[in-house]
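User: Show me sequence and structure for the first protein, then do the same for the second.

Assistant: Starting with the first protein.
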Amino acid sequence: MTPVLVRRWTLNDVHDLRILRTGLREEISDPEFFDRVAVVATELATNALRHGAPPAIVRLMTAPGRLIVDVSDQDLVGEPQFGLRPRPMGEGGLGLLLVRTFAADSGWYRTGHAKHAWASFRSPP
């Protein structure tokens, strides 16, 4: 089944992350679930803004039993490094490890005009 779009944000710089978190809070009522989704969405969006080619487009979608966060940017060359091992504190690179920790599943793909990193969560009961 094709996911259904719930909400979409266009982020031009890291200052727009506040708008993303506020919007996620409006869409997700369960506080614990919100915290997990907000951490993951913020990490994916931050990576798109810092390592990709802004703007970052964040889409919040639903599918049966799932909530999906999909973040795209215009950099078709770079690749998210989901499989990296942990680095020592202070060396960065922990964002995608947080994504793997809090999301049920995650990954990335390219389309003809954008690179997408996504994470899915089991919907709370």
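Switching to the second protein now.
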Amino acid sequence: MSEEKKGIEIPTPWRIKRYYVYILATVVSLVLPWIKVNGNHFFLLSFDKMKLHLAFVQFDMQELYLMPFLLMILFLGIFGMTVLGGRVFCGWVCPQTVFRVIYRDLIETKLLKLRKRIGNKQQEPDMSKPENKVKKLIAILIWTVLALIAGADFMWYFIPPEDFFKYLQNPSEHMVMIGFVLGVAGFLIYDIVFLKENFCIYVCPYSRVQSVLYDDHTVMAIYDEHRGGKIYEDEGNGQHVKLVNKQKDLQAIDPNAECTTCEKCVTVCPTHIDIRQGLQLECINCLECVDACTTVMGKLGKPSLVTWSSEYEIVERKGKTKYFRSKVIAYMVLLVLISAILGFMGSTKEHMLLNINKETRLYSVKHLSDNKFVVDNSYIFLLQNTENEPMEFFFEVLPSKDINGEIKIVKPSKPFRVVPGVKKKKIVTLRTTDLLVDNPRKDTIIPITIYAYALDKDGKPSKKISVLRHSTFVFPKESVLGIKKQ
């Protein structure tokens, strides 16, 4: 009987929806490194140029204090997703799953027909046939090309594409970069072709963490034992004994059991588990089993026995799943808070970097006639232009109300040019001819404020590209100045 007559409409399979997510994730990951705004990338951690680009804003390596916040957002986001939707990250976003689908479902099944159909992931191809060996070799070669592209794409987040392809023209000078690309590609070939879902089951630590994060309202693929019937007996310690294999045996135990024991949900599972056993660490929430059961039961005019729901709703039958519970809200609040902190710290970045170090000599004094003198203090300024274009820079000493006189910068005497990404070392001399402090016994350390700025196109100080730095000016005692009092 048709689905229309039975009144059951089979929805769009979750597998197709996942494919849309995979395509979107693939396009974004490949295209994003090529997009630049004002010469900056969305994300780039360049160890080559000692730069961090974040949300199209450039930061210097001295501002890497932002990275822990990014990592916190990443991990809190994944943990929050797990609390809410189980291993939904694994089934819908994880590159391991995306790559396996491309290799197994697209290359082996759709293109080369090495596998009979997507719905059976348990049956491996018969490699005793010569034609299958050829197809397997072709599949590996195709994936090798894609793995090299994936390795290059990974490297583009550390070496931008415009530099990456320039470096490829001189491979002997950039063997580390090429080695990383080949290493990533080699790992992906081994992982996707040979290790397969064993990576998800045995290697990935996320499957061990998820059990701590789950609660009764966590949404996952769940078999409805109340409707389908009891297929397995839980003996404890993670051991399950299968009670029945045929539908007639199941209905002999439970006449109302609806499970047909077709095991479509088993053969379609990429991690080779039987969802009817209950919660298992290997489940990656790909929902292939939900699609399989939906199709089978839909033909019988019944809803699926495997649904994307919670134990609270399906197993315990205590009511509807609570999505916005205290634990989920706590993760959301933390994510918003950390994102706000990251946004604030990113918005207050300095567009130039300046370190001031005083020379070992405290001062130099030049005596003039009639109690006149010149006092110089010398400094080493380390300046870095964090913009994307060369700029003119200059310094000033801000006036202070605490001293009776003026301190001026006499060297450099005019603005100087600084190119991006290079630390400029500048010897700076501050001078005064005024009696700033009248102290006959000891030298006096005077706090000063240096105003460093770039010049805009009109030759005026830029309000955006400027910094204030605090330092000291050492003023000598009277005996050093050689002042003769009347």
